[in-house]
Design brief:
This protein has eleven helices and four strands, in the order βαβαββααααααααα. The protein has 223 residues and is of the alpha+beta class. Helix 1 links the parallel strand 1 and strand 2. The longest helix is centred in the middle third of the chain and has 27 residues.
Length: 223
């Protein structure tokens, strides 16, 4: 499904890059991935394409850059609209999907960071906050297979990449997401059964090793 040249400035461990990659796979878009060395010097292309934040992912479509992962996923959905839409067609449901995508963007990654960068009582509080956020997402999911209902879609893509970091949060926090949110954990497993997701998400153990290596630097690299 070609509409010109598509290049993704990528980082293998970024859950935000995973969103863009899953969306491209879902839409069947042929694309080139260029891995950014975020620690050894960002490429001139990245600095030019995203001069404000200087983060990945950046989608280059016919040379024109699109930044911020949620915006990138929405762009992919709009441009390659002939295949199954990622966002609902109903305006109300579309607004609800954007609400939960915004909730995930503002809450999940930052809450996870607090778990492994904190100690003592602060760590315990961070863990409780993270679990409460997961419970809110579980309540939003309800008894549905996916956030949009029966079909994998926009909110699922926004959320699922972040789960590749959950093993790291669990190990640092000494808890298990499934013990607190079994329906959310079942949703994670359903998502992983999709080829478009399974081929993109890395081994969570490698993410754990990545987190240990990076310390607090990583929060400045992805968007």
């Amino acid at each position: 499904m070609s509409k010109g040249e598509v290049v993704l400035l990528d980082c293998w461990a970024s859950p935000f890059c995973m969103r863009a990659k899953i969306a491209l796979e879902e839409k069947g878009v042929q694309h080139e991935r260029r891995e950014e060395n975020l620690f050894g010097g960002k490429s001139e292309l990245l600095l030019k394409s995203n001069p404000i934040h200087q983060k990945v992912p950046v989608l280059l479509h016919n040379g024109k850059p699109i930044s911020e992962s949620t915006i990138v996923v929405g762009y992919i959905d709009e441009v390659w609209s002939s295949s199954t839409p990622l966002l609902p067609t109903c305006p109300y449901k579309r607004a609800q999907a954007r609400f939960w995508a915004d909730f995930i963007d503002k809450k999940v990654f930052e809450a996870g960071r607090e778990i492994w960068t904190s100690e003592g009582e602060a760590k315990e509080l961070a863990k409780k906050d993270f679990i409460e956020i997961m419970k809110q997402l579980e309540r939003a999911l309800g008894d549905k297979s996916f956030y949009g209902g029966d079909a994998f879609g926009f909110v699922d893509i926004i959320a699922i990449g972040l789960t590749s970091w959950f093993v790291a949060y669990e190990k640092f926090g000494g808890f298990n997401v499934e013990d607190h949110c079994p329906k959310f954990s079942a949703w994670m497993k359903r998502c992983m059964q999709r080829e478009t997701v399974a081929k993109v998400l890395p081994d969570p153990e490698k993410i754990y090793e990545f987190v240990i290596t990076l310390g607090s630097v990583w929060i400045q690299l992805f968007c």
